[in-house]
Amino acid sequence: MADNRAIGVFDSGLGGLTVLAAIQKKFPHENLIYFGDTARVPYGSKSRDTVIRYSLEIQEFLIKQDVKMIVVACNTASSHALDEMRRKNNIPVLGVVEPGVRALTNNYKNVLRAAVIATKSTIKSGSYDAAMKEVNREIYLYSKACPLLVPLIEEGFTDRKATEMILREYLDEIIREDIHYIILGCTHYPLLKSMIERLYPGIVLIDSSIETAVMLEGLLQTHNINSDSGYRGTMKLFVSDITDSLLDMEKLFFGGTIDSLEKITLGW
Amino acid sequence: MADNRAIGVFDSGLGGLTVLAAIQKKFPHENLIYFGDTARVPYGSKSRDTVIRYSLEIQEFLIKQDVKMIVVACNTASSHALDEMRRKNNIPVLGVVEPGVRALTNNYKNVLRAAVIATKSTIKSGSYDAAMKEVNREIYLYSKACPLLVPLIEEGFTDRKATEMILREYLDEIIREDIHYIILGCTHYPLLKSMIERLYPGIVLIDSSIETAVMLEGLLQTHNINSDSGYRGTMKLFVSDITDSLLDMEKLFFGGTIDSLEKITLGW
Asked: In terms of CATH architecture, what is B97-208?
């Protein structure tokens, strides 16, 4: 029996569209519903309690849309809210932290030292350390919060000298630790990949989006909730605020293949 | 008859503490209640509708605290929400846009060209143009959105080379317009005053906080709602999220003279 209900994907804003794109590429026959909390973005500088509250509210909205599972495409929400989300409902919930760690350990053998860069709130949560301990206790993981990268990316400063200087301020201390593998612990960061690779030749950057799609495949099979493979899936985008940068970001991350866009007011 | 009810002051986050400090200095006998919407900060990249919705919600909270008037110490909220706020209640509401314009026209005579720098949402609202037209139709006002300055200030990057480069990118086009008077249209920007003055010697920076306190004085008199002058006022701080940077910012802007701090959940 095929399950044609949608997969729900959410992020604090639009950075999670990188994950949505990876999912859509691997599962073109799945219906997808994305929620971007653009009225309250960013989550990365907010407290654990507030991130949990927002995540539960979005989960409730997605469940009302009759999704069959939820992908939390936001590292900050994945770091704080997965347990609470799973406690409140009985559909599968997948975050992006474990896929990020697995993208490193599955694809690069004999790595002993690695780093994760992310928002303040993700780093403070210790979620990457905890996930790494589950997967491989031998790897030393260095954590670095990089709070200015999201604003710089959202302003399109991905080619600026100022962004290079700020990146160097954040990343030089990782390189001094003799670390050459960096997990991109924020869904925005892949947009700085080429700048980082140019500044630090030989560095290996780990992006969780593809591994998230791989783990999603396993979950769909385990729970027997794949959709009809003959069916072409639709993609619906919901946001909590229609902002100026919304259409730019959608184009930047995705390229205009969204079937519908709607604004939803939460928490009012 | 003295009116010892508090003056309510609010901002999207903690930048409005610059305005609170100016008010407290001028009116040490007034009780002050500040609300910082740290769970939804920043407002500057959000839409008009969302900023109005948030402002009305905060107004409702402040009125429940029995304030005698409200100062909107946030340029973005002042730009979008004053009319709606005034329509919903009958206590005086003062924004920071008109004081910013008056701080220029009252203190510098014969100015013919000026600029305002602010968030995207403030600039897009056209509020400074409208206020300038009310006050002095002869002055040409150049508007420039500077969206990265708030994140840089909140991260304490007020002394960095990268911040200088981003400032130059924003401000060089103002200087090329042969403009030497710049209104700081965001309550965070005074923290970049010394850097801007060093980069552009001879530039005159206009800060609305002092003029806001001056206009407040007039409002208190007109409405006959001054407090007892012998009385030492209290200062209460409310926020919607207790974030890591909260205590740093409070120290940076204010220096530990707050009487109480409490977290309030709105919109849930």
From this structure: 3-Layer(aba) Sandwich (3.40)
